[in-house]
Write a structure and sequence with these properties.
The complex is a heterodimer of chains A (115) and B (114).
Chain A (H helix, E strand, L loop, with lengths): L3 E4 L2 E4 L5 E7 L5 E8 L3 E10 L2 E4 L6 E3 L9 E3 L8 E8 L10 E2 L3 E5 L1
Parallel strand pairs in A: 2-11
Antiparallel strand pairs in A: 1-3, 3-8, 4-5, 4-9, 5-6, 7-8, 9-10, 9-11
Chain B lengths: L2 E4 L4 E4 L4 E3 L1 E4 L5 E7 L5 E7 L5 E4 L2 E4 L9 E3 L8 E8 L9 E2 L3 E6 L1
Parallel strand pairs in B: 2-12
Antiparallel strand pairs in B: 1-4, 3-9, 5-6, 5-10, 7-8, 8-9, 10-11, 10-12
The chains are: A mainly beta (115), B mainly beta (114).
């Protein structure tokens, strides 16, 4: 029972490099989200999606791109990494329309360091 | 906009003590409210939830009641254990099912000493 799977678990980048954080869920959930967690800041929403082909910006979208070509996958792209993007990134999913107020299921996170 | 405020930590208690972690929120309408727990090195796990006023969520001895009149959702446990040491997050969902994500508080680090 995989749930929400994030890869990689750890990554170190140099400033200016690009990379993609992967997120996949096997629960056929409509809704998916990306958050970043920084000390003393809680979790802040980066981007979210309510279904394949539909994405929108959250609270802190700058420097990140997303796409949702399938229900299962929701990758997060860093276009040109900056030290301010050093953080722990969490992907989450929830069932979607018609399922009431179901909670979000979280992956185990990706710890990203930008040097 | 939406916001969640919870007490800053760390909160240090002795085993078997009574726990309260305060959480208040600002949102229009009727949000759903959640408590998540994060153990060291892990992701967030749902602890409990409440979807309408006066609902009480409960799980593993933890309880929280959705109080619309005071816009609060305080987390309580009657007797804490060392294994309850973790970071606790209060969160709200404005739309059904969290379509546009959750708004989190900053988290409360709970330390239980034997």
């Amino acid at each position: 029972n995989a749930g929400v799977t994030q890869t990689p678990k750890f990554q170190v980048l140099k400033t200016g490099q690009s990379m993609t954080l992967q997120c996949a869920q096997d629960m056929n959930h409509e809704y998916m989200s990306w958050y970043r967690q920084d000390p003393g800041m809680g979790l802040r929403l980066i981007h979210y999606s309510v279904g394949a082909g539909i994405t929108d910006q959250g609270e802190v979208p700058n420097g990140y791109n997303v796409s949702r070509s399938t229900t299962e996958d929701f990758p997060l792209r860093l276009l040109s990494a900056a030290p301010s993007q050093t953080s722990v990134y969490f992907c989450a999913s929830s069932p979607g329309t018609g399922y009431g107020n179901q909670p979000q299921h979280f992956g185990d996170g990706t710890r990203l360091s930008i040097l | 906009g939406n916001s969640v405020t919870q007490m800053e930590g760390p909160v240090t208690l002795s085993e078997e003590a009574f726990l309260t972690i305060n959480c208040t929120y600002t949102a229009t309408g009727y949000p759903s409210l959640f408590w998540y727990v994060q153990y060291p090195g892990e992701g967030l796990q749902l602890l409990l939830k409440a979807t309408k006023a006066d609902d009480k969520g409960s799980n593993k001895g933890f309880e929280a009641t959705y109080r619309k009149e005071t816009t609060s959702f305080h987390l309580e446990k009657g007797s804490v254990q060392v294994s309850d040491s973790a970071v606790y997050f209060c969160a709200l969902s404005k739309t059904g099912g969290g379509a546009d994500g959750l708004t989190f508080g900053k988290g409360t680090h709970l330390i239980i000493q034997p």
